[in-house]
Structure formats: structure tokens, C-alpha cells
Amino acid sequence: DGGITQSPKYLFRKEGQNVTLSCEQNLNHDAMYWYRQDPGQGLRLIYYSQIVNDFQKGDIAEGYSVSREKKESFPLTVTSAQKNPTAFYLCASTTDPSPYNEQFFGPGTRLTVL
Amino acid sequence: DQQVKQNSPSLSVQEGRISILNCDYTNSMFDYFLWYKKYPAEGPTFLISISSIKDKNEDGRFTVFLNKSAKHLSLHIVPSQPGDSAVYFCAASSGGGADGLTFGKGTHLIIQP
Which residues of chain B have pLDDT under 70? Predict the structure, then answer.
């Protein structure tokens, strides 16, 4: 079955620790995205990558880092510099970064900072 | 500064009737609009989209209308079914979506039996 997987589903971390969220897709999609959702809020774009070895900052990139070494994988690291990391994190991908292709989302990872 | 606004946090509709969810945007560069449905603790599921060259797009029970002059779009669901109960997000992008989407805060649709 083709799809986007995110692991783990729930993640706890102590304040001051870095943590990496996994996102893998087997859809052969070129572009991948990371969003963050807070309670009662829409999704906000953190980082995106339209091609391997290239990525761009989104609206709220501070305190986060990403890598895109393989087409299938786009891990997100939440660093200790992120002031409010507790949130629901969603990874998405799209078949081609050309116009008018919808993004497909993974199931999400809920990160809680203790 | 919210560029995509969904002013109704929740909407209650009787089963079988029409559900109308509204969305307003402020960025005139937006040229691609999408609606997603989301259940708690899950990723959003794509429903329907429309590009700025159209004013209507239909897919089964779902129809999206775009009024560019008013910077307004709406999602119509008819007839509404119990499984439609979820949070609906309106999203928009310039350049057709390649650079990521800007989301509204969502409208929680409740279908009552």
C-alpha cells in the first residue's frame, strides 16, 4: 500500500533536548512538507522540499531543521531553540511541485515536551 | 495576519440537509484553493480543490464555489451524512501549491441525526 508514514505517533521529550520526527513516503512524490498544528489553529508550514538535497523555510522555521538526502524521507528535527515545541506535527507530500497537485498527509506525530 | 479565514468555528446541520462551509482570503496572489477534512489525531484528507481560473468544481456530494472578486470560497456538501462530521480546513496557495499551503483555522461540522 502506498502512503506516508510518520513515527512515532506520540513522542515525549524533556525540555532542552533535540528530537527527530520521521516521515517516509513510498508514493514516489517529489515534494515533501512539514506542518505544525496547535489546538484550535490551522496548519502552519515549517519547511518544505521540492527535490532531493534542497529544502526551503516555511512560515515558522525557527527552532527546526530538516534534511532531504533521499526522495522517500524528510525527517524533521525539533531543536531546543524551539520555544513552544508541544504540538501535532504533520508531514505531507505531492507528486510534482508543479501547479495544482493536492498534498497528501501522513497520520501525524504528537510531540509533548515535559 | 491571517491570510485565510474561516470565521465559523463550528456548524451544526441536520442529516440530509445541505452543509455550507465558508472561507475568506486576503492574499490576491492565491490561485489554488483546497478543502481538507480532518478527524482528531489524524492527518487531513483531501476533499476537493479549485484553481482560480474556475468558479465551480464538483465531485459527488461536494461542490466548491470560488468568488474571486469577493475573495471568498465555499464548500457545499449535499446531502450531509453522519460520516461528514469532522473539522474542515480551507487552504490556499500561490503558484499552484508547490511552495506549501496556507490554512484557515478550520470549521467543526457536526451532522445531527
Answer: 96-97
Read off the pLDDT band of A99 (50, 70, 90). low
Query: DSSP letter string over A32-68?
Result: EEEEEE-TT--EEEEEEEEETTEEEE-TT-TTEEE--
Interfacial B residues in 3-62 facing A (CB < 8 Å)? 4, 6, 9, 31-32, 34, 36, 41-46, 49, 51
Q: Chain A contact for B98, CB < 8 A?
A: yes
B98: nearest Cα among A89, A2, A30, A44 = A30
Q: Do B42 and A107 touch (CB under 8 A)?
A: yes
Burial class, A49, CB count within 10 angstroms (exposed 0-12 / middle 13-18 / buried 19+)? buried
**Does the beta-carbon distance from B49 to A100 stay under 8 Å?**
yes
User: Percent of chain A, pLDDT > 70?
Assistant: 96
Cell numbers linked to B23: 472561507
* Model pLDDT for residues A21-72, shown as the tens digit of each residue: 999 999 999 999 999 999 888 899 999 999 999 999 999 999 999 999 999 9
**Which residues contact residue A112 at a Cβ distance below 8 angstroms, ignoring those fewer than 6 apart?**
A10, A11, A12, A13, A86
Q: Which pLDDT belongs to residue A11? A: 94
Distance from CA of A79 to the nearest CA of B (A): 22
CB contact under 8 A, B100 and A45: yes
Residue in chain B lying closest to A107 (CA): B43
Whether A89 contacts A4, CB under 8 Å: no
